[in-house]
Amino acid sequence: MPVLLLLLFGVALSISIGIIVMVLRRGGGQTFKAPPGFAKPVIARCEHSSLFHRPTSWLAIKTRNLLAVQSVLGLHNVKSCSWLEGMASDESLFIAPPVNGWILVMGCGLPDPSDDVDACFRFVREVSRKLGHVQFFSASRILQHHAWVKADGGRVLRAFAWAGKTLWHQGTITSAEKELKLKTPDYEESPERVAFGQSDAIAANIEKVPLLAARWSLDPARIEWRFLERELGIAGESSRRY
């Protein structure tokens, strides 16, 4: 009986192998042809946000005049370059080409409120005095330091800066801040203690800074690809100190 079962198993296995070989032979050499009207697959270009990362800090200036911004920031050793080239360059500042009436400025030459909030105040106020409507944004995911400032005509309308404590709190909280539920404790106000397993409301501001920028002006990581690839800005070293 065991011998008979083995024989039957062998026969079934042989038949199965034969069928598989026949199918492969018939299928070999044939190419799939899409039926009429069947759309070919399209390989989509990767979104630029995966290639162009949002800077840690940036200025948004309501103007289209690149040369005026260059003059106010005191840039020298300048060169024309695209967004991607400007962000990858070694120069301290990159003045991006105008987008929807705004010029963005990025780079390590911008002041850091957590290092010297007074210098940041003087910088934004002076740029605003000469160029009009100016906004400043900063968000460090590593340190969780962040700031946002809105100024016009040399006057700070709204400002908040955080680096473990409130460094700068000026002006009336805007409707956009309220809609995004940004936490902006006053100078003497202690942040709420975070219970285990709960998210830190102040730390949550980090992810909302770009959303605020998009409401006030522009989010740098959401600029259309054609601007990143074709339009030219200015990169250079800044000689101004505030």
Commentary on this structure:
With 242 residues, the protein is α+β, with helices and mostly antiparallel strands. It has one domain (53-189, 200-238). Helices cover 32% and strands 22% of the residues. It contains seven helices and nine strands, in the order H-E-H-E-H-E-E-H-E-E-E-E-H-H-H-E. The protein has helices at 2-27, 66-73, 83-88, 117-131, 175-180, 205-216, 225-229; strands spanning 57-61, 75-82, 93-95, 103-106, 134-139, 146-152, 155-162, 166-171, 232-238. It has a nine-stranded antiparallel β-sheet, sandwiched between helices. A hairpin with a 7-residue loop joins strand 3 and strand 4 (103-106). 28% of the residues are buried. The model is unreliable at 26-51 and 194-199 (pLDDT under 50).
Residue windows where pLDDT falls under 50 for at least 5 positions: 26-51, 194-199
Using only CA atoms, what is the Rg? 29 Å
Number of strands: 9
Overall average pLDDT: 80
Structural class, from helix and strand content? alpha+beta
The total domain count is: 1
Helix content: 25-40%
The span between the termini is 98 Å
What topology, given as strand order, has the largest sheet?
2-9-3-4-1-5-6-7-8
Oligomer: single chain
Concise synopsis of the structure shown:
The protein has 242 residues and is α+β, with helices and mostly antiparallel strands. It has seven helices and nine strands; from the N terminus they run αβαβαββαββββαααβ.
